[in-house]
Amino acid sequence: MEDPSKGTGSGRPDPFPGTVSTETGTILARSENSAPGVAVIDSDERRPDALGDRPTTGNGKAMAAMGFSQAVDNSEGGLINTFFPLIGAAFGVGESMLGLLSAISKFARMIFGPFWAMLADKYGRKKILILVTGVWGLWTVASGFAPNFTWLLILYSISVIGTVASEPIINGLLPDLFKQSQRGRAYGTIRAIGTGVGIVIGPAIGLFAMGDNPDGDAWRYAMWTMGGISILSGVLIAMWVKDPRQNTAREDMMAEAGTFKVADAVRLFKIPTVSLMAGMVVLVTSLVLLAFYPNFLVVERGLTIFQATLAMSAFSIGAVFSSYLGGRLADVFVRKFGEKGRIMLMQIYLVAFGATVAVATQIPYEGFAAGTTLSFLLGLVFSIGFSGCVLPMVSNVVPRQLSATAFAMLFSFIQGGITALMALGLGFLAEAFSSQMMFLWFVVVPYLLNALYWTLFYRTYPKDVALQKERTALVEAGRF
Question: Does this model's pTM top 0.85?
């Protein structure tokens, strides 16, 4: 028998059986000099230095391009909400149609987010990003030429199908550009860039509607400008983003977070905390508030459209601080009260946000100063519960490989679907009565009821955390 260590007749050494587990899956490997065993691999060509100690460099421009892309996509929905008073006047429609436009964007996120991710897997993530972020901006430009509301509805619906694509694709691309120890900072940097650019884009485009009697076509100029910015973001991605893996398997791209499977989603309901979370998100109606709030500032509080864009930027600035504050407050509550601390903080947050919404929408006032101040306060409270309580609690009770399934089920499917349906129906209520009434009964009251609902978590959450810790320990010991 021929000695395998001498190689084959073709001059190539025979591979020896063995595998190395990396962050992108399991790689067949051979040892150096064809000696039996498995070589030590600290990185692979698909994820440069993913497991190594050297920092990944040269991706600063890529982060800037992707952050800019997210800012553009996030700003397009706000554009319709802010400029709706001019759109309504131009086409003779009321707030019921604002609810319809808002619902369309939310349904698009539910349905087409996974669709674009699958196309990106098949044809390459950079190619799809350029398509949906850059080329797709032409549909936003076309929306500005709509001759009537029916055509605006059609063109805007097509445009938002692409708008929802960048976030899931970028989330899948980042692990290939940064090693594990750098990814938290990378995600945070892109979100910060996206938020910062978004804060500037809103008022900048709002300049088209300055004054008490803005040009009736200002919303068209805004659409054309936003479409042009979207095309620019596609150019930046083409120049600055490099996809290490042009064609990827869906299972490989999502290996670290897990993929969404219906069977897994159903099994997650056996965790009491997850079941309670599914009921809780029905009462989280703040996304409805954001859909109608800019129009409320203009129609019922006397701000100009340009002033409303500044007020919403103030809200965004407050929300940035809110995310940071929520995490820090949660740490304090957990140290002082244990696992029940997050539940206590969430109840405090729910009451505080409900009260803040009541002050901002139920107390009569007029003027830019009051509107901007109250909008900033809304933002300052807005994200405390989600960042400090909800997200960590879900992560603490579900197996790590099912975390993506849990988040998709709770927040993309359940909350996204309910919010879309509510926006569709509440637009008619706001038009029939007033946005002020709608905010009271469908934002303030649900948040106060939710604070009572969260009392149920005291019995389930600490037990579920303990059980998940046991499961994790068994997995690490190889006994699960």
Answer: no
